[in-house]
Amino acid sequence: MIDLRSDTVTRPSAAMLQAMMAAETGDDVYRDDPTVNALEAEAARLSGKEAALFFPTGTQANLVALLSHCERGDEYIVGQQAHNYKYEAGGAAVLGSIQPQPILAAEDGTLPLDLVAAAIKPDDIHFARTRLLSLENTHHGKVLPLDYLARAYAFSRERKLALHIDGARIFNAVVAQNVTLEAIARYCDTLTICLSKGLGTPVGSLLCGDKAYIERARRWRKMAGGGMRQAGILAAAGLYALQHNVARLKEDHDNAAWLGQQLQQAGVEVVDQQTNMLFVRVPAEQVQALQSWFAQRDVLLSVGPVTRIVTHLDVDRHALEQLVAHWKAFLQR
């Protein structure tokens, strides 16, 4: 089976499973799981933040991040297509009474600062209090430029806003820009990191920030049901991923670029590719037939008018060659 629906479908390698089985554990709610503590310390070190907190899911990490920045009746400014606005069941509004103020992102994935400025509410009892600017890096596979992040951070200081980065795939940005995580994280107050996408762990995300913020987040995590016990088994996978699976993300980027070139040569229109996400256009009349064609050939792909293809560690170049062959055969049928 060739699965290109997302990088969330990755499975732990034999070496990662071995690290999980050998993990030293304790009770993380009591803060005495040494492997969780080591993972959090490593995430804090890499990001240049004072502390980090381990979560079972990225959605919970994003929710707690917002709950720890905003109070009931506060507002966060966010992209219209951002994950923590559109794809997390409205959790901030439903569970935190936090109002989202979505704005359209630019073509490069950034939120134009003039639009952000226009969305900030006056200090008036009629309005929600604007407290937070939330960015996403990468955003649908697009890497936010470092100079934009520097300007956004300076802007947030001027406007007295906190700045959070949903960094579910932030290590893809790190590898694409050939920088350290700290070089990106210096331009935000807090960030999340997902371990279970391209980094290949079965479970887990991290929230990084200063110590006082992480202490607030720890309370919210407990309230949201994220207090885990012998979680070192899961944290060991995260440590393995940070040590072994970051640099290899370049293979995914290269594979996505190669695939885009091959499909373009075959007559498929390529819309965008920067990291491990390739977007191609499929004529409306081909969508259903192409979906069935791939399914019959053990290829899992979410085919639509704009189809997202996500490369990852469980799909090698040979598998992509098979995909190209299947696509060519479909076009020539």
Automatic annotation (TrEMBL):
<dbReference type="InterPro" id="IPR001597">
    <property type="entry name" value="ArAA_b-elim_lyase/Thr_aldolase"/>
</dbReference>
<dbReference type="InterPro" id="IPR023603">
    <property type="entry name" value="Low_specificity_L-TA-like"/>
</dbReference>
<dbReference type="GO" id="GO:0008732">
    <property type="term" value="F:L-allo-threonine aldolase activity"/>
</dbReference>
<dbReference type="GO" id="GO:0005829">
    <property type="term" value="C:cytosol"/>
</dbReference>
<dbReference type="Pfam" id="PF01212">
    <property type="entry name" value="Beta_elim_lyase"/>
</dbReference>
<keyword id="KW-0456">Lyase</keyword>
<comment type="subunit">
    <text>Homotetramer.</text>
</comment>
<dbReference type="GO" id="GO:0006567">
    <property type="term" value="P:L-threonine catabolic process"/>
</dbReference>
<feature type="domain" description="Aromatic amino acid beta-eliminating lyase/threonine aldolase">
    <location>
        <begin position="3"/>
        <end position="282"/>
    </location>
</feature>
<dbReference type="InterPro" id="IPR015421">
    <property type="entry name" value="PyrdxlP-dep_Trfase_major"/>
</dbReference>
<dbReference type="GO" id="GO:0006545">
    <property type="term" value="P:glycine biosynthetic process"/>
</dbReference>
<protein>
    <submittedName>
        <fullName>Low-specificity L-threonine aldolase</fullName>
        <ecNumber>4.1.2.48</ecNumber>
    </submittedName>
</protein>
<feature type="modified residue" description="N6-(pyridoxal phosphate)lysine">
    <location>
        <position position="197"/>
    </location>
</feature>
<keyword id="KW-0663">Pyridoxal phosphate</keyword>
<dbReference type="InterPro" id="IPR015424">
    <property type="entry name" value="PyrdxlP-dep_Trfase"/>
</dbReference>
<comment type="similarity">
    <text>Belongs to the threonine aldolase family.</text>
</comment>
<dbReference type="InterPro" id="IPR015422">
    <property type="entry name" value="PyrdxlP-dep_Trfase_small"/>
</dbReference>
